[in-house]
Amino acid sequence: MTRLDLNAVLDWVPEGSKVLDLGCGDGAFLQRLRDERQVTGVGVDIDADNLVAATGKGVDVIQEDINDGLHCFTTNRFDVVVLAHALQELTDPHIALLRMVDIGEEAIVSFPNFGHWSCRLHLGFRGRMPMSKAMPRHWYDTPNIHFCTVEDFEALCSELRIDIIARATVGGFAQGFLGKYWPNLFATSAVYRICRAQS
Amino acid sequence: MAPTHPADSVGMVTPQRAHFDEPFQFANGSVLDRYELVYETYGELNAAADNAVLICHALSGTHHAAGFHESSDKRPGWWDMAIGPGKPIDTRRLFVVCSNNLGCCDGSTGPNTPQPGADKPWGGQFPQPQVRDWVRSQKQLAERLGISRWAAVIGGSLGGMQALQWAVDFPDWVEHCVALAAAPGLAAQNIAFNEIARHAILSDPDWREGDYLAKGTLPARGVALARMVGHLTYMSADGMSDRFGRELREDSFAPDSSNEWVFQVESYLRHQGARFSTQFDANTYVLMTRALDLFDLAQDYGGDLVAAMSQAKARFLVVSFSSDWRFPPQRSVEMRDALLAAEKPVTYANIETDDGHDGFLLPNHTYEQLLREWMRRVGPS
After folding, report:
1. Which pTM value belongs to this model?
2. Do residue A60 and residue B345 have CB atoms under 8 angstroms apart?
3. Given B289, B308, B341, which residue is the final one in a domain?
4. Is the CB of residue A26 less than 8 Å from the CB of residue A55?
């Protein structure tokens, strides 16, 4: 798997840490974390096929709906809680974010940036909801029910009293100058390292 | 004629018998001066003895988990689905042991075996075993077989509870633990069902205070009724509707039929009850249901399940079945959460099925795949 946002996430996971991967899919990322970062990890995924695939990679997965509140995890049990490209699929992304910074010392969140210029062009000129290689589904059958932009996300963090420790942008020109200074317009995906506000 | 078993069957198997001349003390203080355990094994124990897997049977299960006793057997052992060459519990690389619990009626010392010093079977005098007693007796058997650590202990329902008890009581013995359709202890409703079953047996006039074998009677009606109640709770409402609907038995409308109309589901339950009542010992049924009721994994830890689970050193697989209302998913979730709180490695799945509690014994693609993939981590690589 070479999804770029995952490379950024990997860089922020300390060696040997305890990691919870929410929406872990087929477990490939947890496997990578285990092999490259020697982490102790557990995943959460609701899909039975994902569970089987992840189990085959030797990682542990809990079959559970993230939307149900993650009550199986008590406060501060993980060094890092990861939510990679799943935020936009949750019924209550804001509640999930709060839970993540409760359960983990830090959390890492990545999501597709709906403020990207191509989305804006699509909506602005065609007047239709954007569809692309990364977002191939129609508005009515997409699991992505809560798209947001980089600025939306940062505003939410501030509202929830969540500190942003670092931000990385990926995709297209994003790694360069444009993405760094105008992420809301040029990042296809954004990755955030966050924690509960210290004061 | 060569037996024609499927290629992934363990084929013909012969039960074995281990005799122990040392006394066995039950948790309730009763003592057996000597005892026997009957068991089966599949596959080969390797030189390092690190590929041994223990299968714990459920309430009415036996040591006959896989393969065939006679070439004419129509049915293989009770978990043949999962055990065999190339099956999830792969006998090409694992050495599988399944023993009949103390107090059962299929060969291990129990109510239907002779009571020392009396010229009759134990009957109602047989000590009440608890799950922990079975664990200790299985440890004796393991040592006899040259095993000092299980690569995995696996069980469903009562057997799942036994697997958990193993992991908590003897942490150094259990590397992997699989608990299917189990619970950390029975809820009130579950104990109530067991009490109905026992009451059915104890109120049969042929029960004779448990001494029916010596007195030449058989409380078959009581056992049949107990089994009907039990069987009902192992199925789901949807599963029963799919299977039986409101269908009547074929001969119900026959012109010469003076008898009542019989729904298929009635016919099925009667058949299950009748068949079981001649095969299963009534005392064993009473003892097994009590052992279930008494099971409480957290009992030695002030009721703190997390403290109990903290003892274990195993990696866990906990599986529940969505339509199981006898041991509902919520009970597995309790165990899962306790394991997570105790920082134990655990995989948890809730298998989507209409098969109810019986789901752990029935074919299901996801379940089979999950077990297969998870078992890859068991045993030497």
Report:
1. 0.95
2. yes
3. B289
4. no
